[in-house]
DNA sequence: TTGATTTATTGGAACGTTCCATTTATAGGC
DNA sequence: GCCTATAAATGGAACGTTCCAATAAATCAA
């Protein structure tokens, strides 16, 4: 055990009675080597317990076969689903994605990006942490390293983005709520330092306006994008003089929180208060009641991001088109009609 | 932009008018350098847009500051929670963990491990994929690379394991069920190629035996460790002549599936059929009804695994003690008394 | 046979760091 | 002023690959 000084290609060469260059060629699967020689070498590789040293190789070769995937919140199942989509396409391209979590912390993100770059990754797929400064990716851009954003974009950045059509999704969901008869609507969760927030809120507002809901009848409550945030939003909203009867939530986690808080107050989500989520994570359909949500096809976005990255690497460019993924509203059981319309409120 | 030929410490040296050795020293934060010189160098580093090349450094230095974390199912929130725990301790040690997903695929696992090793990681924390062959980690062991398993162990391996006390957890949960008056019990989900499965099932059996449940009154249904698996298990069980009235599930995902399937049949989880989960993921407390589950402290296990790894790296050993984490049963609302047994207890 | 071609193999010079052994500059003691 | 001790900076040899240019061996055309 504690095997002394790890084996190098020179050890293999000695063992197999060939030159180091031959070994190198075999390792790269070159067709130039006579099959019997290759076999001999491969045997020697086994015998000495050799581990390829990519650091050494990277010193000469331009780039590695690893790409970094930087995610802002690993505990959000949404990102796990996206990661799985990416992995599917990278795997078939012989690329190994390494995932790193920033936990929404820009400082941590800085460290992670630095580490990934030092490691010599071939490209970066990033879902930026909240509060990322515009200059945070300058380094990477000047290094000419391919990078694509997923889900979130930065205010004024030329980096390509793969994201769902947030604006349309929010419009769809809001129209659904209004169609159910709701007249006092809320938008729950998220915060204005996120571009996505503005997109979704924009869709919400546009639908309200188009369908004749006065802006004084809309309520916007910022908050954490988590269950806890949802709970807080609902509390705030119900404390108002004329509380809303329905809410579009920034994402499913917030929606789950809202439903939880409703239950705690003895209100039935869906019947007493309508709620729509965003993202349509797998749990959405298993909740009680099942959550109506805007499906964004997370795995599909992941695949798309991976494809774009692959293309950028191959064509050694750092430019690419944005990609706005289609969305659709999945109607389940969390939005009944407005009950109070007509008869004051019961709560 | 597109700055060709990336800058090296030689470029910095030229820019700052010092030698490459000096630059290297500054990079490592050596106290040997005069502060003004260091400042000058640091400025030059900024100016040329330098990116540290860890590959080159690794060629001389023994090991890097990255450790690999290989996970068998990223979409299981349990692992995300564990990952977060690990990250907490690694971060403060200046180590960046790279996460890779194997999706329960031993072949993929092989690739991932290879890639991580080539990358020159300082250590590996692995939750092995189902169906991993005993020899899969031979390579890593002979290379003298520190490795620890989490959650799962391999049949006959000397690699240290960080895992919860599965046996005790299952016993606790089963005793709880029996205490509620249930006499026909099931164990749902998991499969016998997992050591964990035998541990949990063993605890279940031991409790049954100790508390006077005949083994013909117990039912064991293997199945996927997912919601889907849970649904299937329940269907199978209810199709029996004398179906069980309560089940211990292999993990929370299975339990969620069971509850879902119960609802679909018009049965109320908790009242009509008792179910207890394993792992106590965050969703457990938010479910309807809230799920009684064996809490294993996932984040704590992650932290512990990280600490063990850190110690192994520092003491450059490849040995470490196993660590069996404490468990406790969190009683919520998913297990009522057995209704069919006359009247059982009043709780 | 001889030279030309093709097929296999090989030595050596990079790649960008680290680190040891030196050198050079600075300060102190007398 | 000289010698010594300390502080600061430096050159050069690794580290384990890749890749080019060169060589050696085998094949072929004449």
Automatic annotation (TrEMBL), chains A, B:
Record's signal peptide: none
Matches recorded under Pfam families: LacI, Peripla_BP_3
Origin species: Mesorhizobium tianshanense
SUPFAM superfamilies registered for this protein in UniProt: lambda repressor-like DNA-binding domains (SSF47413), Periplasmic binding protein-like I (SSF53822)
Keywords in alphabetical order: DNA-binding, Repressor, Transcription, Transcription regulation
Keyword presence, Transcription: yes
Coiled-coil portions: none
InterPro entries given in the database record: HTH_LacI, LacI/GalR-like_sensor, Lambda_DNA-bd_dom_sf, Peripla_BP_I
HTH lacI-type domain residues: 7-61
Name the UniProt record assigns to this protein: LacI family transcriptional regulator
Molecular-function annotations in GO: DNA-binding transcription factor activity; transcription cis-regulatory region binding
Presence of the UniProt keyword Coiled coil in the record: no
């Amino acid at each position: 055990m504690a095997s002394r000084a790890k084996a190098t290609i020179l050890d293999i060469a000695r063992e197999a009675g060939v030159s180091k260059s031959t070994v190198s060629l075999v390792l790269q699967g070159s067709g130039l080597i006579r099959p019997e020689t290759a076999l001999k070498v491969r045997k020697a590789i086994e015998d000495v317990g050799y581990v390829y040293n990519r650091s050494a190789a990277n010193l000469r070769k331009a780039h590695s076969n690893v790409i970094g995937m930087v995610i802002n919140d690993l505990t959000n199942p949404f990102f796990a689903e996206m990661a799985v989509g990416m992995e599917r396409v990278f795997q078939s391209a012989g690329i190994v994605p390494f995932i790193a979590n920033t936990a929404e912390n820009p400082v941590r993100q800085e460290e992670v990006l630095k580490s990934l770059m030092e490691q010599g990754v071939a490209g970066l797929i990033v879902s930026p942490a909240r509060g990322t400064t515009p200059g945070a990716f300058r380094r990477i851009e000047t290094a000419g390293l391919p990078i694509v954003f997923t889900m979130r974009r930065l205010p004024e950045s030329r980096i390509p983005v793969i994201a769902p059509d947030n604006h349309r999704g929010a419009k769809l969901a809001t129209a659904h709520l209004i169609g159910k008869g709701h007249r006092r609507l809320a938008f729950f969760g998220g915060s204005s330092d996120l571009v996505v927030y503005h997109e979704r809120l924009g869709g919400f507002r546009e639908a309200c306006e188009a369908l004749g809901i006065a802006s004084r009848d809309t309520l916007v409550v910022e908050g954490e994008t988590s269950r806890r945030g949802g709970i807080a939003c609902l509390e705030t909203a119900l404390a108002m003089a004329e509380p809303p009867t329905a809410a579009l939530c920034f994402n499913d986690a917030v929606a789950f929180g809202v439903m939880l808080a409703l239950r705690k107050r003895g209100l039935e989500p869906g019947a007493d208060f309508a709620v729509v989520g965003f993202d349509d994570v797998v749990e959405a359909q298993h909740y009680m009641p099942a959550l109506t949500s805007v499906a964004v096809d997370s795995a599909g976005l992941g695949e798309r991001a991976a494809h774009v990255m692959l293309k950028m690497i191959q064509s050694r460019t750092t430019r690419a088109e944005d990609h706005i993924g289609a969305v659709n509203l999945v109607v389940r059981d969390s939005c009944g009609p407005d009950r109070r319309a007509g008869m004051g409120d019961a709560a």
